[in-house]
Design a protein that fits this description.
Strand order of the largest sheet: 5-4-6-7-8
Number of helices: 13
Structural class: alpha/beta
Strand content: 5-15%
Number of strands: 8
C-alpha cells in the first residue's frame, strides 16, 4: 500500500469525508497534503488516507477536528486508547468473543461463519443478535482502530454477518401489526444495524418492510404511504455526523403523518438530544418496550 495514491473521490467514498471538507482542511490546517496528477487532480498518499481514517473515527467519538488535524499519528493513537479500553470492557461483558475476532484476523472465513452458525443455533436469533452480533461489531471496529484490522477485513466480517442474519430473518414466521418500515438516510451506508433491528422486531411479531440503506427522505415518505407503514424506523451508526441526526429526524417528522411513528436507533442516536415526536430506540430493550407501548395504545 505504501506508495499508492487515491483520488479525492476515492477518499470521500472510503473514508467518509466530503471533498469540500478535505479542501477546507487543506487550506486551513495544512493537512492533508495531496500530490497532483498529470491534470492537476488531487492524489492522496496511502499514509495520509490512513491518518484521515483515524481522524474520522475520533471525530465520530466527539473529538474536534481542529485539534485532531494538528496532532501527530502517535497523539491521535493515544487519544483513541482510553475509548478503546472502555469499549473492550463493555463488549466483553456480553461474553468472550476473542475467538471470532481471531478468525477474522486470520482470514479464516469458513471458521468464522461456522462459529457464527453454531452460536445462532445454540442461542436463538434474539440472543444471537444481542449477545454476539452487537458486541462483536464493536470489537471489530476497535480492532480496526487499534491497527490490528484492515478495512477489507472489516468489510468481509460485515458481509458474512449480514448474509447470515438475512437467512435467519427469512426463517421467522410472518408478523402482524405494526408494519415497520426500516431504512437509513443518504450518507448512512451501514446495513448491519438495520438487520439487527429487523431481527428483533420480527421476532416480536412485527411486520418488517426493509428498504435497505440510504433512501432519500422523499422516497421514505412515498414508501411509508405505499406500504401503509405504522412506524418508520431509521438506523444511525456512530459514524453518521452527529449534527445531522436531529435535522434529518425533524424534517422527516414534519413530513410524515402524525399517526405514523418515527423511531431512531443505532449508536449515532445515543449522542444527540431527543427530538420531539421521535421514539429513541438506541437499545434492543428500548425497541421492544416501544413496540409494547404502540400495541397497548391501540
Amino acid at each position: 500500500m505504501r506508495g499508492s495514491t487515491f483520488s479525492i473521490a476515492a477518499v470521500e467514498r472510503d473514508v467518509g469525508l466530503s471533498k469540500d471538507v478535505l479542501r477546507v482542511w487543506e487550506r486551513r490546517y495544512g493537512f492533508p497534503v495531496p500530490e497532483r496528477g498529470p491534470s492537476g487532480e488531487r492524489l492522496y498518499p496511502a499514509e495520509q488516507v490512513e491518518r484521515l481514517r483515524l481522524i474520522k473515527r475520533l471525530m465520530d467519538q466527539g473529538h474536534r477536528p481542529g485539534r485532531l488535524l494538528t496532532s501527530s499519528v502517535d497523539e491521535l493513537s493515544a487519544l483513541a486508547v482510553p475509548h478503546s479500553k472502555a469499549a473492550h470492557a463493555a463488549a466483553h461483558a456480553g461474553g468472550d468473543l476473542d475467538e471470532l475476532v481471531g478468525h477474522v484476523l486470520r482470514h479464516d472465513n469458513d471458521a468464522f461463519v461456522q462459529a457464527l452458525q453454531q452460536r445462532l443455533a445454540r442461542d436463538g436469533l434474539q440472543r444471537f443478535v444481542q449477545d454476539t452480533v452487537a458486541p462483536l461489531t464493536l470489537l471489530i471496529g476497535l480492532a480496526w482502530q487499534d491497527g490490528r484490522l484492515q478495512v477489507f477485513e472489516e468489510h468481509r466480517f460485515t458481509e458474512a454477518t449480514e448474509r447470515l442474519l438475512r437467512q435467519a430473518i427469512a426463517a421467522v414466521p410472518p408478523g402482524r401489526a405494526p408494519r415497520v418500515l426500516l431504512t437509513s438516510v443518504p450518507g448512512e451506508p451501514h446495513a448491519l444495524g438495520l438487520l439487527m433491528a429487523e431481527a428483533v422486531l420480527a421476532l416480536e411479531g412485527a411486520t418488517c418492510i426493509s428498504l435497505g440503506t440510504q433512501t432519500p427522505l422523499s422516497e421514505i415518505m412515498r414508501a411509508a404511504a405505499a406500504h401503509r407503514a405504522d412506524i418508520v424506523a431509521l438506523s444511525f451508526s456512530a459514524a453518521f455526523p452527529r449534527r445531522r441526526v436531529a435535522a434529518v429526524l425533524d424534517e422527516l417528522r414534519t413530513a410524515l403523518p402524525r399517526a405514523t411513528g418515527l423511531w431512531a436507533g443505532g449508536g449515532g442516536v445515543r449522542r444527540v438530544a431527543a427530538s420531539a415526536g421521535v421514539e429513541p430506540t438506541a437499545t434492543w430493550e428500548a425497541a421492544i418496550a416501544a413496540l409494547g407501548r404502540w400495541r397497548s395504545a391501540r
